[in-house]
Amino acid sequence: MPRSSRPERVEHPLELGAILEEMVVDPKLAAGMLLGSLARRWAEVVGERLSAECALVGIEGSVLVIRASSAAWATQIRFLAREVVRGSNAILGKGAVDGVRVVVWDARGGSERGA
To answer: What is the CATH number of the domain that holds 108?
Structure first.
């Protein structure tokens, strides 16, 4: 059974630029590209120590999802939310990020909980 999300095969070659342009407009891929760009420079945004305890795990619309290693680190990242937004926008472009959502990683149970 053919997959509906797979593009039709074409007989003539396509230009690489056209393929990349089509990929960039895919919302999931665009969010992934933003996330990757920011993740590579995460320590610049939050500092070395905080980046060791709080990982960037997703972006939902214009809200960053950050996973903290404990409730104390979650409190710290929430306290610095404006600076995180400002630093993220300095890297990604003005208006790319307008908020943060923090979850705490429960290492004992291997699960996340909203904080």
So the answer is: 3.30.300.180
Tell me which DSSP letter residue 26 carries.
S
Exposed, middle or buried, 73 (CB in 10 Å: 0-12/13-18/19+)? buried
Closest CA to 72 of 14, 20, 115, 21: 115
Instruction: Encode pLDDT of 45-92 as tens digits.
Output: 999 999 999 999 988 888 999 999 999 999 999 999 999 999 999 998
Q: How many domains does the chain have?
A: 1
DSSP class of residue 109 equals: T
User: Per the structure block, which two tokens stand in for 31?
Assistant: 């969010």
Determine how many CB atoms are found less than 10 A away from the CB of residue 45.
23
**Phi and psi (nearest 5°) for 88?**
-65, -45
